Amino acid sequence: MKKEKGIWKVITASSLGTLIEWYDFYIFGSLATVIAGQFFPKTNPTAALLSTLATFAAGFIVRPFGALVFGRLGDIVGRKYTFLLTLVLMGGSTFAIGLVPSYESIGFAAPVIVLLLRLLQGLALGGEYGGAATYVAEHAPKERRGYFTSWIQTTATLGLFVSLGVILITRHALDDDPQTSIAKFNDWGWRIPFLLSIVLVIVSIYIRLKMQESPLFSKLKAEGKTATNPLKESFGHKTNLKMVLLALFGATMGQGVVWYTGQFYAQSFLENVCKIDFDQSRTILIWAILLGTPFFVFFGHWSDKLGRKWIMLAGMFLAVVTYRPLFQELLHLSNVEQKTEITEERKEQTTLQPISGSLDSVRIIEVHQSYTDGTQLHVIAKDTLYHDVNKYALQPVIQQAKLLGNGVYWKMVGLVFVMIIYVTMVYGPIAAFLVELFPTRIRYTSMSLPYHIGNGVFGGLTPFIATLLTTIYTGDPLVGLMYPIIIAGICVLIGTIYLSNQKTIH
User: Does residue 102 share a domain with residue 173?
Assistant: First the structure.
């Protein structure tokens, strides 16, 4: 009973820190459309969004380097103080992003500073997960590693959940008038979620300082058997290197793309392709996450009984064969051309705003349409009317926002929930799977690298690559899905042939 109580203290300390780290990381991704207008020129919104997503992805690209640096520290110095250090670095850089002046204030220095802070975040996160997973696994009974480590897996998704909640609350709390509140948020209020993170980080540091070192690592250290060169032992020995490569190409690579497709790209698709209202696109994800999160523990526990391999590969396989139909249905549900308009409720308004210092004006045409399924469409078209008759107006800039009816809304929640289930299948067992592949003396280093290449590089690039593909190949709104489908498919093939389904190895 005492041992059981002790493991829950370990899980709490590890999970809270990991939740905060992911909260910090997710704020940036969730606010990509807002940040694009703050740190990049506003003349080309598409280029600004792609630049923001590239900056977001840069943090993931450096995660393997963080895994090497902090993994080595973890195997030499210890688990506790290494992932305590990653927390400080991550939290500090996140807080600092909330202080960076906008592009309009300091020019190109703004995106450069943000990029540097994102790189620091990525390096820190490269050491965080491996430390937390190893720390919990080395406290847990071997026969229940899947169950206990799966609680850590919930924190990444809960971090996204909390970040979305804080964003929505802040967005509507800045003024009594909803439109004014949103305008204030887009102007300066977006900084608040970043700045608030420092409070959470301080709490987590306090909790982690009270924890003891991993018993398995302490035993190795007392016996003088800790690794002197974990990098060489992890990647210089043929047998261990083979396990690192199998972990990457047979598991974590596919896990990464399923993770980011089911959450980040799904939300981006709802907002940017389906044109769903800002708040609704995020509450759809919030509900799906809330309903899906318990399944991390379910599949982690199940993997203790059935083994890790087939649960993870089943999640990847289902993603491969169903992603296009699922996203196609999201597109179908949001397509107003297939809905019946209530024509008598149609509202149209045209206003002219004089341009200061000239005789020209900006024409704003607002159209509000209602449909029988409860969906509402708000379209704003802006162009310039020139006083000089020899000048012709350019193509109007059109903004759309769809507010879904209740029935359609919950259908979309259900579709995203299915994608979250795939996430729980691949992510719930993977911590135990990685821990069990490698011996204790080099475990932190060995498991961190394939995880962060698979999850960070292959997975983290998903929103950027998918969005880029849709920008290039405009004829197919689902073309972005080819990237996660191909990567997950390769992983399923390699994992099926070469991975073992042993429940425990070490």
Answer: yes
